[in-house]
Specification:
73% helix; mainly alpha; 2 strands; two-stranded antiparallel sheet
Length: 259
């Protein structure tokens, strides 16, 4: 006969684990998508929290009042949000590159509603975003993000988070630098082709001023941009690798500033 005893301390420990896992699932990429039903998210959070409850060493929680326990709950929620946010912000690099591509191609005002980010995004940004997410899923990025979160309990135990604000500040600054560099790398082929086209149109405007280059240039920019995007499709794995490396870098940086 198997007997199972659940004390109040065990329940408090499990609840804190569930709070961190739920906050992570609500923010992390792939897991927080609106297409995923809420019941699936809730069941996933409960399953992960239950497995972690058996695996994570149980520690005595030191608190005196309900307010102290509420503070611990808030700390665990912040830890889960920070870890999930560190992985999700890297997806905005793709949207940034797509917006710059659309500005050059003439699609700057053609925006659509993205149900994932709940924001108005560009067409090229949406295409690259879903293509890169598909490549990352094929490479096992979602398992890496989940594994990194689970391994964070070895460094940040329950009620063991110590927030390094200065470290997070420098991490955000480093991400903003990488945000511009990686985004421009993705945007560079379109930028070079459109710049060469603008030079050619400028020369033609001087040679044949009777031609309306404004009308001709709009169609040529769209056609040139679409052709270049078609030709550089084979670079999508390299773009995904950029995002993969940046996601790892950001997760290591933010987790390192929590203990």
């Amino acid at each position: 006969m198997v007997t199972f005893h659940l004390t109040l301390q065990d329940f408090e420990h499990f609840f804190l684990i569930l709070i961190r896992v739920s906050a992570f699932v609500a923010v992390a990429p792939y897991f927080s998508m609106n297409q995923v039903p809420r019941r699936v998210k809730t069941g996933l959070a409960l399953a992960i929290a239950l497995l972690l409850w058996f695996a994570v060493p149980k520690q005595v929680l030191e608190y005196e009042t309900v307010i102290d326990y509420a503070v611990i709950v808030v700390k665990e929620a912040i830890v889960g949000i920070v870890i999930g946010f560190s992985a999700s912000i890297c997806n905005y690099i793709i949207l940034f590159a797509g917006r710059m591509i659309d500005m050059d191609m003439g699609f700057a005002m053609v925006n659509i509603f993205d149900p994932v980010t709940k924001d108005q995004v560009s067409i090229s940004g949406t295409f690259y975003n879903y293509a890169v997410m598909l490549c990352l899923l094929c490479s096992g990025m979602h398992t890496y993000v989940l594994r990194a979160f689970i391994d964070s309990y070895e460094l940040i135990p329950v009620n063991g988070a110590v927030f390094d604000i200065n470290g997070m500040y420098h991490g955000i600054l480093q991400f903003l630098s990488d945000y511009i560099v990686i985004g421009f790398r993705i945007y560079l082929p379109i930028f070079m082709s459109i710049m060469i086209l603008n030079v050619v149109l400028g020369v033609l405007a001087k040679v044949a001023p009777q031609m309306n280059m404004f009308v001709v240039g709009m169609q040529l920019k769209i056609l040139t941009g679409l052709i270049v995007m078609f030709l550089i499709v084979y670079l999508l794995p390299d773009i995904s690798n950029f995002i993969f490396i940046e996601t790892k870098k950001m997760m290591v940086t933010f987790i390192g500033n929590l203990y």
